[in-house]
Amino acid sequence: MKRLLPERKRAMDKVKIVGGGFAGVEAAWQLANRGIEVELYEMKPVRYSPAHSSEGLAELVCSNSFKAMRTGSAAGMLKAEMELMGSLCVECAKATAVPAGGALAVDRDKFSALVTEKILSRKEITLIREEITEIPDGVAIIAAGPLASAALSDKIKELCGGSLSFFDAAAPIVTAESIDLEKAFMQSRYDRGAPDDYINCPMNKEEYEAFYEALITAESAPTHEFDKRKGVYEGCMPIEVMASRGHDTIRFGPMKPTGLLDPRTGHRPWANLQLRKENTAGTMYNLVGFQTNLKFPEQKRVFSMIPALANAEFVRYGVMHRNTFIDSPRHLGSDFGFKGKEGLYFAGQITGVEGYMESAASGILAGINAANKILGKDVFVPPELTMTGALARYISDGSVKNFQPMGAAFGLVPPLDEKIRDKKLRYEALAERGLKELENQLNIG
Asked: Which residue, of 170, 226, 264, 366, has the greatest Cβ tally within 10 A?
């Protein structure tokens, strides 16, 4: 009996991670750094998703850029926080970087090869090339990504009460402070609900005509083959496609002015875009009904033609593609733990974080918290003033309805106590504040 107990304990302490992408490798790295054994399951090369082609871990399937490096940017702030927490992906990215101005871009093959090499070098990590089709028992992390296999997706769907979301279309999001309120007004349609539930962006006939022409002639983004599956876009028609069906189609749809009165004119607008709060703090607003597949520069150009959005800062542009994710605010805590199954964690884009480094950051938190559970330590969530903490709270915020994925953005972070008009200086101050908070939590310095 005495001989069997240690073996049983070791088996129970071993963590299974499903998925060898950015989130999976970061989670494995954090666990290994804490002396915990890991079984990392990656289905390549046994089976490939429609987007993947190499056997390497942390394979880049789209851009080779991890966005800006400067700390005074949302992406740079996130990477700086990840470095403080011992990120594997940031370390490997810097070692395989290629010239990209102020961005951190990598040689994708060298990056993946280096990540794979480092994972294989750890005695605590066993890499198993096998497809997982069941939710693992014990302490486990699902980091299977947005293109998880059909069998595993079915099990996740069952676990989540029979529903998964498909990132068919998402409208752009702008910062509240960048909306010109002198050219907008607050009112709910027909005065139903609180007056500040919506910000209305009215347009007269001349403004609408110019906007409409720009919208129907704007350039759309290319669609990947694996995003063209039957039924993907049903019920999520892009605003530009809807507009192409007739001159007044959107004026009787997402831009209908009925039930509204512009206090500046005393009349109903010719057309109207409504903005809805994206978070409880009211720092971000969603362009209601403006799901789009326009290229990002085109979205900036065309949507800025709406007078109240002339100087809008876009936290996230509209996107359209297949991206399976769970309804995280209903199912996950800010530690990325699943509420209905103790010891189970999710990480990566399947949780609703959008982007390479955002996925990696979620893997760091899931890995740390899985380790803390085994080691009997407290839950770890970075402060809300950090970008990592803000993302963790966004995906677990029960007040968020119509949940959609989100990448690093300053709109997620609580504003400064002092007003700084210069955007560059304001962002630098936000980053400095957040990094100090994280350093204090980690007892660095």
From this structure: 366
User: What's the pLDDT at 235?
Assistant: 45
Query: Model-level pTM greater than 0.85?
Result: no
Residue type, 169: A
Nearest residue to 21 (alpha-carbon basis) of 59, 55, 64? 59
Helices and strands counted in the chain (H then E)? 13, 16
> CA torsion sign, 300 to 302 to 308 to 311?
positive
350 lies in a domain? yes
197 with 96, same domain: the answer is no
- Using one digit for the tens of pLDDT, what is the confidence trace for 333-376? 999 999 989 999 999 989 999 889 999 999 999 999 999 999 99
Distances (CA, A) of 7 to 58, 222, 375: 32, 53, 17
Query: 119: domain range?
Result: 11-167+323-442
Q: Given its phi and psi angles, is residue 215 left (phi above 0), alpha (psi -120 to 50 degrees) or beta?
A: alpha
Same domain, 138 and 184: no
Judge if 195 and 305 occupy the same domain.
yes
Q: Are residues 365 and 348 in the same domain?
A: yes
**143 close to 326: Cβ distance less than 8 angstroms:** no
Q: How far apart are CA 355 and CA 18, in angstroms?
A: 19
Question: What angle do helix axes 387-395 and 356-375 make, rounded to 10 degrees?
Answer: 80
DSSP symbol at 406: B
> Both 150 and 47 in a single domain?
yes
Choose the final residue of a domain: 300, 316, 332.
316
Tokens at 79, concatenated: 């990477």
> Do 133 and 281 share a domain, yes or no?
no
Amino acid at residue number 337: G
